[in-house]
Queue: 2 jobs
Job 1
Amino acid sequence: KNQVEQSPQSLIILEGKNCTLQCNYTVSPFSNLRWYKQDTGRGPVSLTIMTFSENTKSNGRYTATLDADTKQSSLHITASQLSDSASYICVVSDGDYKLSFGAGTTVTVRA
Amino acid sequence: GAGVSQSPRYKVAKRGQDVALRCDPISGHVSLFWYQQALGQGPEFLTYFQNEAQLDKSGLPSDRFFAERPEGSVSTLKIQRTQQEDSAVYLCASSHTIGGLAYEQYFGPGTRLTVT
């Protein structure tokens, strides 16, 4: 049973536009939530990590939000670039070493 | 310093063959993880090592899967008598510590296994 659900499954945007990815989770207890970027043929790379008390965190053009009450997170990409084309994976930790991964959202940025 | 490396990057095996996948973690990292990532899915946990001790192998799908890390550094994931459902990307990740907010896993590029 997948405890982390992401939407949309995929999206296509034009270079320079913004987009927002969604993540809903049921993992409990909750320790932290991470967003990873995974380029094709590469391993996931961490973008942001947020704990229960953090509502938002930015990493360059990437901004993640967290609502621990509704168990929702979003990743906003501003002024998209061709290099943003990748899969974005939402990952939730219950504080232990095991992580719960979403299936990812595949973003394609077109010129 | 180098990141996590994995070899081979691609492996094609005939059904029934044995395969061995290698992971070189970041030097000094205590924790090492193996994940299986099916096409279009997120990684699924397979097993966890703390130094040379395999503390959790609950994610290994069958007894055909075996992992070791004899000296607490390099790890090998072995799959015996491969089957088509074993086709996936196998990711290795390492971390300098366990637990707490400082915890972070650094992933290797993965080995794509295709069983024909």
Job 2
Amino acid sequence: GQNIDQPTEMTATEGAIVQINCTYQTSGFNGLFWYQQHAGEAPTFLSYNVLDGLEEKGRFSSFLSRSKGYSYLLLKELQMKDSASYLCAVPSYNTDKLIFGTGTRLQVFP
Amino acid sequence: GAVVSQHPSRVICKSGTSVKIECRSLDFQATTMFWYRQFPKQSLMLMATSNEGSKATYEQGVEKDKFLINHASLTLSTLTVTSAHPEDSSFYICSARTGLTDTQYFGPGTRLTVL
């Protein structure tokens, strides 16, 4: 089967760094996605990791360890607009679907 | 690139009417499109997967006769909520992917309110 775990909620301060963790169990691995979803809006694609290591994209970086079934999303220099839900997702092993975690709701305070 | 549009963005209708939502991939050909529903403060729930030119595959518990999906071309899929009722009020989101990667690109969503 496939399962994704991520914390439900996190809080952080403007200007700080926050790390959102995601662990997954999957029958076959074909990459891991991170999406950002602001309240009342649709998700937007942030990153896709298929190889181990850290991929940096501006203030956001995503890390993957396939052997540990673990990923994290690192947000630097937090801004108020980063308050959103962050969804971790992996492709389903034998279908076209993405399996989403429940999302981590991040609140950034001044 | 990878822009997906949805229309309408918001719709209010009376109970018993049908509502059609369009999902278009604007700058790529989408071999597969997905329809999700999301209630306030809840997770995305996949309703169905549709491949161009074939019947949609519905998730367990989703009534295919109530939620009609048509994927007539590589850039357009439609979801029709038939005989809508207040409990169908929700945020409906489509996504699209090419056949090359698993990345799904989401439309902006359609907020349906059934009175």
